[in-house]
Amino acid sequence: MHIKCYYMKIKVTSLGPINEANIDLGDLTVFFGPPNSGKSTALLALYYALNPPLFLPFTTSLKYRFIKAGNGVMNIRGEIKKEGYIEFEYSPSDEYLKQYLPEGEFSVEPFSFIDFMKNYQIYEDYEDYLKFQSIVLPSECDETVSDVLRNGIKFTASIRDNKVSVNYQLGTQNLSEPCKEYVLKEISTNLINKIGERILSKFLESFYEKLNEIEGIKSTLFIPYWRSLATYETLAEGDQLPGFINVALTAIGLSNLPQLFEYFTKLSNKKINEDVYKLLQPLIPGNIEVIGNKLIYKEKGKLIPWKFTSASIMELLSVLLSIKEKEELVLYEEPETQLHEKYQLLISMILYALNNKLVISTHSQTIIYTLSFLTLLKPKAEEVAELFKSLKLSNYEELAKAVEKANSKNVKFYYFHDGIVEEKSAEEISNGIPGISDVMEKEFDWFSKLYHERIREEKNANP
After folding, report:
1. Endonuclease GajA/Old nuclease/RecF-like AAA domain location, by residue (predicted)?
2. CA 99 to chain centre
3. Which residues is 163 bridged to in the sheet?
4. How far apart, in whole angstroms, are the C-alpha atoms of residue 336 and residue 280?
5. Which residues contact residue 261 at a Cβ distance below 8 angstroms, ignoring those fewer than 6 apart?
6. How do residues 343-360 score in pLDDT, each as one tens digit?
7. What is the reported pTM?
């Protein structure tokens, strides 16, 4: 059953190659167009609007007893009022967008995470412990201070609106002034990080509770173009081959991208969504089994090490291991990667049949045409099965039924080109994809011209 709510929108006034765009998301939304037209930019803008990188550490500076801190998502200003007492205020920040997106302006409806932070408040009183795994103290501090910090400092925090007050008991007396100042700053810096992370996690939890209420979305998943590398690195953990892919990602700077960090985290939980697995089975010739927290792959009863599996299998595994629940909004970058034409046809069927709300970017005319004709003609399960039989597939029954069930979906197509984004109907696309049919027509005209030229040359050479 699909939640019929299409309130979520992306409005771009200027963002990288996109000069203007008004995009209403459906159950399935397809971004297509030439390279460097803004498809991936729009995907990433939506991802970061809904899923800010909360794992970023706070950078903290102290001048006298005044505190400034920020991590690009939240700014903090406060003061060490006295020993054992801190007050600070926090405010949302969109600085992180400047780091991960090109320059420009965009908005997301019904609200982005930052919009949510501006309009909702947290009220909470709680107790916790702050522990220091290791700390270098000045010579003025004796060992008792180090022992106290390692054992943990109990603190209470009171959060009201955007104001926070923190009380703690250091548990040691008669500190020298240099030692006291150093310890107070260390404790304050670490408390800011710990409480700041809690505040952001509380906001994210409430944000998705509200988004689920409105849109039926509990989380956001970005399936990146680099997914095969990430999937192989995760599956090959403990294999004889070294983890060179993770090293390579770090070397070229990709490991610092939050969408890849989050994707690795998703993959590391090697649990399989059985509903997704049933849809993918026509494309997977063998069997995938879970043993503990380890996945194995077998074909005809033989164990196939991951280093010997095909690129297409790794592509399919990247989907299988990352989509965990149907309430997840899935943002999928170029699903045709590593897939043969036949598999592109089938992955189109699977994307159409998935229960998740889905946004994809693609260059594949096979995927675009298939999705447009599915939307236009709404085939029945037996009609889908007829196609699968002609392709000599097996285990397709669940997918055929899911395709028919998906015919009630709202599918939207957006053509990115020349700085603008145009919505196209399924009927328009089925008559010829802009930017693709034009190129193909020019290509065939050119080949035809060359063909007749070669015949003429041959006749002249052999009069």
Report:
1. 9-368
2. 16
3. 89, 160
4. 14
5. 53, 55, 255
6. 999 999 999 999 999 999
7. 0.87
